[in-house]
């Protein structure tokens, strides 16, 4: 698709790479025979190898399908990372910052994690659950969701979205191929971080619920005079966190499968946070439904939250 140039660390190190597309829709990824999907992904990796690539990052549904890159790594011998460690790091950082800006007291607030049994959702719940008074875990498989809940203080498992209306903060990261979070699911003055691609939050929320703040997880400012050679809908010099994890590993000359499989661990998240600080990768503000979030939007949500609290207390 394109040749990526100009990624330059604060340390002076530089790297370059390529965007290579696997031309399948999310529905195709989830419904085609797995062997066929793997074959297409392996062909993409081989194309990367021909260009001199030494580490491959998976994006969007290429990291969701199958076993999170493990089989692909075995098939090709290429170091592969899903990018999920830095995706979690930026989702957590952005969500907690948004909480502070709209006036949410985390110690008394309720967090909901939708997709809590997936690798990103589980890690978000484990790291963020300690910050909140209560955590609602939503997963399609109730038995698996119960197991996750055992490791998180004050966590309540559920297989439905009914109780999300009680959450002050929502992190949603399912592998659904259509929106799952609708206007009627959300509490007034809530903060929602949508890490999923395709997005989990319906566009109806943007139109019908100006009282809530929806941010997209993992929008990163990349250091250096970077030229992606491809317009994927972001402002210049910004990228998804999953892409940025691959860039950082290349800058460190770490040709390794850093985040592989269906699990992300807290120590990996912390290591990525340190790596980002060292090289100059940082959150590029908030974005919501492909647009920058304004200070007026944040203030409006803050006022809506305060109004809801005032009504509840009267």
Description:
Helix 6 links the parallel strand 5 and strand 6. The chain is globular and about 65 Å long. 39% of the residues lie in helices and 18% in strands. The model has no long low-confidence stretch (mean pLDDT 94). The protein has 11 helices and 15 strands. The relative contact order is 0.17. A 6-stranded parallel beta sheet has the order 7-6-5-8-9-10.
Estimate the global geometry from the Cα principal axes: globular
Strand/helix succession: EEHHEHHEHEHEHEEEHEEEHHEEEH
Q: Which assembly state applies to the chains in this document? A: single chain
Name the CATH architecture of the largest domain.
3-Layer(aba) Sandwich
**Proportion of residues in helical segments:** 25-40%
Determine the mean pLDDT: 94
Largest sheet, in brief, is:
6 strands, parallel
Widest sheet, order of strands: 7-6-5-8-9-10
Ends apart, CA distance between termini:
58 Å
Per CATH, the superfamily of the largest domain is NAD(P)-binding Rossmann-like Domain
CATH fold-level label of the largest domain: Rossmann fold
Give the amount of beta strand, in percent.
15-25%
| SS content category | alpha/beta
Q: What is the domain tally?
A: 2
Give the key terms.
alpha/beta; 314 residues; three-stranded antiparallel sheet; Rossmann fold; single chain; globular; 11 helices; six-stranded parallel sheet
Q: How would the blueprint of this fold be written?
A:
Blueprint: E1 2-8, E2 14-19, H1 26-31, H2 34-50, E3 56-57, H3 61-64, H4 70-76, E4 80-81, H5 84-102, E5 110-114, H6 119-128, E6 134-138, H7 142-149, E7 155-158, E8 169-172, E9 191-194, H8 203-208, E10 213-216, E11 219-221, E12 238-240, H9 241-251, H10 266-279, E13 282-283, E14 287-288, E15 291-292, H11 295-313
Parallel strand pairs: 3-4, 5-6, 5-8, 6-7, 8-9, 9-10
Antiparallel strand pairs: 1-2, 11-12, 11-13, 14-15
């Amino acid at each position: 698709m394109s040749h990526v140039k100009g990624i330059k660390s604060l340390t002076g190190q530089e790297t370059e790479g390529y965007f290579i597309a696997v031309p399948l829709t999310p529905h195709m990824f989830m419904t085609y025979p797995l062997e066929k999907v793997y074959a297409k992904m392996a062909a993409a990796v081989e194309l990367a190898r021909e260009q001199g690539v030494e580490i491959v990052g998976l994006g969007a549904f290429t990291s969701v399908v199958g076993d999170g890159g493990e089989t692909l790594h075995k098939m090709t011998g290429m170091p592969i990372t899903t990018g999920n460690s830095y995706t979690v790091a930026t989702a957590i950082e952005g969500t907690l910052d948004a909480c502070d800006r709209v006036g949410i007291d985390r110690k008394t607030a309720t967090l909901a994690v939708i997709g809590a049994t997936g690798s990103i959702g589980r890690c978000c719940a484990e790291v963020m659950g300690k910050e909140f008074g209560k955590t609602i875990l939503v997963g399609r498989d109730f038995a698996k969701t119960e197991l996750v809940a055992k490791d998180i203080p004050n966590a309540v498992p559920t297989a439905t979205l009914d109780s999300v209306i009680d959450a002050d903060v929502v992190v949603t990261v399912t592998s659904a191929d259509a929106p799952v979070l609708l206007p009627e699911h959300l509490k007034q003055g809530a903060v929602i971080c949508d890490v999923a691609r395709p997005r989990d939050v319906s566009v109806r929320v943007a139109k019908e619920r100006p009282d809530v703040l929806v941010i997209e997880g993992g929008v990163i400012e990349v250091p250096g005079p970077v030229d992606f050679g491809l317009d994927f809908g972001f402002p210049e010099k910004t990228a998804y966190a999953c892409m940025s994890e691959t860039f950082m590993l290349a800058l460190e000359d770490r040709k390794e499968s850093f985040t592989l499989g269906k699990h992300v661990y807290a120590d990996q998240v912390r290591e990525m946070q340190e790596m980002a600080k060292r090289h100059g990768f940082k959150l590029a503000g908030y974005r919501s439904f492909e647009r920058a979030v304004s200070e007026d939007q944040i203030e409006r949500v803050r006022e809506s939250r305060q109004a809801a609290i005032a009504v509840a207390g009267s």
